[in-house]
Amino acid sequence: MESRYRFRLYLLTAIVLFGGGTLLSRLYDHQIVNTEYYRKLIPGETTIAIRDPGVRGTIVDRNGQLLAKNLRNYELVLNLDEIHQEWERQYSEKQKPGRRRIGMAVPTAERSREIVRIIRDGIVPRLKHHGIEVEYSSSALQKHYVTHGGLIPFTFPVDLTYEQFARLAEHNLEMAGVYVTVRPRRDYPFGTLGCHLLGYLKQWEKGDIPEKAKEQYNHYLGDAVGATGVEATMDGFLRGSPGRRVLRKNEKGRILGEVLNERIAPAQGSQVMLTIDARIQFLVENVLRKTGRSAAVVMD
């Protein structure tokens, strides 16, 4: 009887020791061996890298006369996430506490529909009050918000005059998330002069992202690319160096701010000088327009 009791006691002790050893072994793996792995799984602050396109270089003739340059383009941009946060704050003040949860910044289907209504009913009427008519795609606005949230501003398809730019910059529409900004726009001062030589640009298409850039940036804004002419053949020299912004984001997806010491401003590309003379080119093109199908050779 006593031997059977001792056997059960030893068996129970062995089971307890085996189970305790197994637990200690797993605990060691979790706490010591795989510490870094599980630390990365803890929700916390992360960083997001955004690529800004470079500024394109200029094209001049043999005398330094500008044939292609960049103009200031006054644009109206919207930080959709900031606008939605301000709307939530105003909404919560009108409701009883606990009726609506504030702070989740991750774009959802409901939030994307809300942002369309906010822009339509809150922003557009104020723009019309300042004499600015805008036509935009609600689906494009909704898609942009779902894709980028507050990381990349949404640009309204409207070219502002300097007077409108100054007025909006002063008033700022009295609403958070609405800004005016200046961006370079390609311009050819002499219109169609030498257009067969200069060529034209093709705007960057969303989704056209190099594989290497996918590893460097979370959000990619591409450069305009030369399609024909000098803009295409000298594209590698004309294209400027891209900029880089790094933003901080918490575990709820809300943008906390920018890491200023990691900001890299976009740089302008090189200037390309051609061998043609803009004055002679102008005279020759005017003569050829009158003669019809013909050719011209200019010799010194």
Question: How does the SSE layout of this entry go?
Answer:
Elements: H1 2-33, H2 35-41, E1 46-52, E2 59-60, E3 66-78, H3 80-94, H4 109-129, H5 138-148, E4 154-155, H6 162-171, E5 178-187, H7 195-198, E6 201-202, H8 211-216, E7 219-220, E8 225-226, H9 229-233, H10 235-238, E9 243-249, E10 255-258, E11 272-273, H11 278-291
Parallel strand pairs: 1-7, 2-11
Antiparallel strand pairs: 1-9, 2-3, 3-4, 3-5, 6-8, 9-10
Helix pairs in contact: 3-4, 4-5
Structural description of this entry:
With 300 residues, the chain is an alpha+beta fold. The protein has one domain: Penicillin-binding protein 2a (Domain 2), CATH 3.90.1310. It contains eleven helices and eleven strands. Strands 2, 3, 4, 5 and 11 form a five-stranded mixed sheet that branches. Helix 3 (80-94) crosses helix 4 (109-129) and helix 4 (109-129) packs across helix 5 (138-148). The longest helix has 32 residues, at 2-33. The N and C termini lie far apart (125 Å).
